[in-house]
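Notebook entry, cofactor series.
This is the third protein in the set we're modelling with a bound small molecule. For this one the ligand is 2-oxoglutaric acid. I'm keeping the input format identical across the series so the outputs can be compared line by line later. Sequence and SMILES below, as received.
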Amino acid sequence: MRASLIQIDVDPDESVNSRRQRAGSLVREQAGSDLVVLPELWPVGAFAYQSFEAEAEPLRGPTFEAMAKAASDAGVWLHAGSIVERDGGTLYNTTLLFSPDGELARSYRKIHRFGFDKGEAVMMGAGEELATVALPDTTLGLATCYDLRFPELFRSLADLGAETLVVSAGWPERRRSHWTLLAQARAVENQAYVLACATAGTHAGVEQCGHSIVVDPWGEVLAEAGAGEEILVVDFDPAKVGVTREQFPALKDRVLGLAPPR
Ligand SMILES: O=C(O)CCC(=O)C(=O)O
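Returned structure with ligand:
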């Protein structure tokens, strides 16, 4: 399989509409890949909280339309990153996954909202449903940014059959070491591929780390981007997940339901 991770620059001086068009063109340029991935909240910026209300869209809004068309023009599975979704009176951080004919295969509302007592954590509703998507050669498990810190979410995705864990993010440069470490940890502990796509640039005063990364089920880094806008193109063998799990069957040694101390 070939995957293209589009580490787009979120520049506050570029309009959302212009970035949407540019993202569509970048996706089209990846025709020939099997799977194209965009990062978290790239239309507005993951930390541009003050713009969330104004830029919120219905699920099937302008980003949905642009990305559905880009997926079908390129003939690729497209993980279109996430949008600020408005559903009734509630905002969600929602990922869109399109099939190569431009149909929505899955959406995923971010479960772990970031910000503690501000930003997304207080402005957005929490997703409640895990998301997996069966592609012809692998099953994807979807996660968004801060979710990466919660291993139980990834283990639940693996239990549901996920073999390729796709993380879209807008991760701050200040915690870049956590980003690469956690991406490798989620790959090793679940014996799965991790495709983690982040944003470049600085918005709302928060420098983004970039460094999108692809890790194999053994924890080896297959490719890693730099800090700026970049497209990471990686070939990987989905069969390696089954081989790794068979040759080093640690997942079979799990002990569930541990008793608390008496
Ligand atoms: O966990 C982190 O350090 C970053 C999380 C984040 O920026 C987000 O979820 O938007």
